[in-house]
Design brief:
Helix 3 packs parallel to helix 4. Strand 1 and strand 2 form a beta hairpin. By secondary structure, the chain is an alpha/beta fold.
Length: 512
């Protein structure tokens, strides 16, 4: 057996060669105290064992938090520009390793290579952005209301931050969490999703190689109840960042509130794309295909509802369905593939169940709706791109997050009707409008109640320097990306310097 410090022994079986990946705690790669592991399988081909990962328990999480707490005492005192230089080096290393990490991600998550390359690139972009923020952790200086007195506000770190990451963007979203937290002077414990731990391990490995001191970043793999819940309850964790379902987010928010932890929740979406009669239909169709079926629909920003004005409704459907049928589904390591598998069998079963629900509700299934299991596809979790038309906005398929390659097309009378349909949902993450009318575009930017609005682009494609997040059941008001992340991972401290050499009593000393 071969060994290395990151993975330990390599298990060689009759059909596969799988590495055993360890937790990273206090600068060391260590096994879980549980002695248990779990398999990371390729959802496009379950014969492909990507790796063996630690099934961590509370004792592992406690050790990681203790290491982060010790490291915080020194890390918070490192000047922010110096912290940022490490993040910059990490960006340079990610560029060098981009192709290898992209292929790792396609194997463990399933999305096609062009998308996993974009996922790694997003981590690179995030690293460059927050490297710059190390010299821009601005706070205001302001005139005091009293003479000979100086007033300003400064940012200070929170302490130990716990992070629970999703499986659909297994490097990009961890980078949204880790990198701003580090630049602000916090230390971190992250639990990657059990379906896609390798990509987060790769990011943590880069940070370690770039020079992040021991204990500043720690990773523990495992399942929510065993490795996620202990973070929520630990008194030394001062902030929790979670990306996932609204139902789990509600529990996390409630638990975090009991110990007054800062809590950032990035949750579900049911995102509308409006197509008006004057839209560029070629552009709208391409955007709607990419928004609905990119990442197999497994994005919180996926275009899951397309609201089309009646003047172009029939033409849009005919052309959209024709293009959806042409999408090539398969293993994302094949560069010719357009759409990969569902992340696991449970998700695939859920997707297919929603097809049954849509049909029972009276929506017309225009294409797709079936599992693909011929040839090599039988070893993965594949489904046809699925389009429902003549969908009533109140149907479950138009209200509930499916998180799969299922899109509902809904007719509307005009922009006002479309906006009413778009907003009549419990979520409010992303939205889009296709039109050539600038007046209607600005009306939609004002009236669509969502955290993100695109004009003449689909509901996916956020950029790292702008705030990312949503309204209503999509989250609790915090934002990831850009200055929104700096706001979450730092606290304001107001500072007053009185150089009058006498006691001044603020408002009490005021003389009118």
């Amino acid at each position: 057996m071969a060994t290395d410090t990151l993975t330990g022994p390599t298990i060689v079986g009759s059909a596969t060669r799988a590495k055993v990946y360890k937790n990273f705690i206090d600068g060391e790669w260590v096994e879980s105290v549980s002695g248990q592991t779990f398999e990371n399988l390729n959802p496009a081909d379950t014969r492909d064992l990507v790796g063996i990962f630690q099934r961590s328990v509370k004792a592992d999480v406690d050790a990681a938090i203790a290491a982060a707490k010790r490291a915080y005492a020194k890390w918070r005192l490192v000047p922010a520009p110096r912290r940022a230089e490490i993040i910059y080096r990490a960006a340079e290393m990610l560029i060098e390793r981009k192709e290898d990490y992209s292929r790792d991600m396609t194997r463990e998550m399933g999305k096609v290579l062009k998308e996993t390359r974009g996922d790694v690139q997003e981590a690179i972009d995030t690293a460059y952005y927050f490297a710059g923020e190390g010299r821009r952790l601005f706070g205001p200086t302001t005139p005091s209301e009293l003479p000979n007195k100086f007033a300003m506000a400064i940012r200070q770190p929170l302490g130990v931050c716990g992070m629970i990451a999703p499986w659909n963007f297994p490097m990009a979203i961890p980078s949204w969490k880790l990198l701003p937290a580090l630049v602000c002077g916090n230390t971190c414990v992250i639990k990657p999703a059990q379906d896609t731990p390798l990509s987060t391990y790769n990011l943590v490995k880069v940070l370690s190689d770039a020079g992040v001191p021991k204990g500043v970043v720690n990773i523990v793999s495992g399942f929510g109840a065993d490795a996620g819940a202990p973070m929520l309850e630990h008194p030394d964790v001062r902030a929790i960042s979670f990306t996932g379902s609204s139902s789990v987010g509600r529990t996390i928010g409630t638990t975090a509130a009991q110990s007054f932890k800062h809590c950032s929740l990035e949750l579900g979406g049911k995102n509308p794309m409006i197509v008006l009669d004057d839209a560029n239909l070629d552009l709208a169709i391409e955007g709607g295909l990419w928004g609905a079926f990119g990442t197999t629909g497994q994005r919180c920003t996926a275009t899951s509802r397309i609201i089309v004005q009646k003047g172009v409704y029939s033409e849009f459907i005919e052309r959209y369905v024709e293009r959806a049928k042409q999408l090539k589904v398969g293993n994302g390591l094949d560069e010719s593939i357009d759409m990969g598998p569902a992340i696991n069998e449970r998700q695939l079963i859920s997707d297919l169940k929603y097809v049954e629900i849509g049909q029972s509700e009276g929506a017309r299934l225009k294409c797709g709706g079936h599992r693909l299991d011929s040839g090599d596809l039988r070893h993965g979790f594949f489904m046809e791109p699925t389009v429902f038309v003549d969908v009533n906005p109140k149907m479950r398929i138009a209200q509930e997050e499916i998180f799969g390659p299922v899109v509902s097309i809904i007719p509307c009378d005009d922009l006002e009707d479309a906006i009413e349909i778009a907003n009549n949902i419990e979520y409010g993450l992303s939205s889009a409008l296709y039109t050539r009318d600038v007046n209607k575009a600005f009306a939609a930017m004002r009236d669509l109640y969502a955290g993100i609005t695109y004009i003449n682009a689909p509901t996916i494609g956020a950029e790292v320097h702008l705030p990312f997040g949503g309204t209503k059941a999509t989250g609790n008001g915090h934002r990831e990306g850009g200055l929104g992340a700096i706001e979450f991972y730092s606290e304001w401290k107001a500072v007053y310097v009185d150089y009058s050499d006498r006691l001044q009593k603020a408002q009490i000393d005021r003389v009118d």
